[in-house]
Predict the structure.
Amino acid sequence: MFEARELPDRLESVRETRTPDVRVFDCERDFETLPPALAEDLGLLVDALEPASYPADWLPDDAPTLLARYVSSDLTIGMPGDGSVVPTRQTEPPIVIVKPRVDGSPDPFVDFLIAEALVRLDLGVPEHFIGFFEESYRDLDAAVALDPNGTYQVAAALYDGWVGLQTREVFAGWHDDHSELADAWQDAGTRLEDRVSGLSRAVARGDTDFADATELACAAIKHALELPAPFAALDTEAYLDHGPAYAIQWAEKTFDSLED
């Protein structure tokens, strides 16, 4: 099910410099969330499993089932919105899992995704947005006028944007030491530019729903792209400094304006 992935020199250099204890595995099967039995198979490859758990009362009563399972003591690896490469510290040592959905993608882009996962582990940011919002997730739920799945998507996007404010500083410094990874970071951003520049118009016309727009805008933050309103307010030092409180305030103001 899992096989150690051989890293090219450019990635091995990042791993050795930032996260020398981290192991990187390919997964035979695609997944959003690993089935419990398969997640436990990781125990054969690592020294220990340490499931994350959080207080259940951090969640609103109508929270998606997967989110309720994640905050429990069950070993839950991978969640909707996690993308093609999943880092986790629920194992000792930490690991990065590469899903087979990356097959066919350009090697430099896949290497960038793995490098990004290594950087996230090095930064020590929460593994999931519930560890970012904590008990204030209920306040975000109250501010976001969407169904539970839409709120989940917005929360995941806002957390991704906050992390992106930190990782992009790392990527921007790679032009000298890790030029191929820096080029892949820039290229991925270039591919997003046209979609992001027209985002406000797409939402106004109803071509893109708000949760999808938030996800795209927050993904663009890590590429240092210019964002349209209301998402530009997330690309700020204030958001980096104040995190969840700022995100909730942004959601309250944004949804109030959408209702006007």
Notes: Strands lie at 2-4, 23-27, 48-49, 85-88, 91-92, 95-98. The chain has a mean pLDDT of 95. DSSP finds eleven helices and six strands in the chain. The first strand starts at residue 2 and ends at 4.
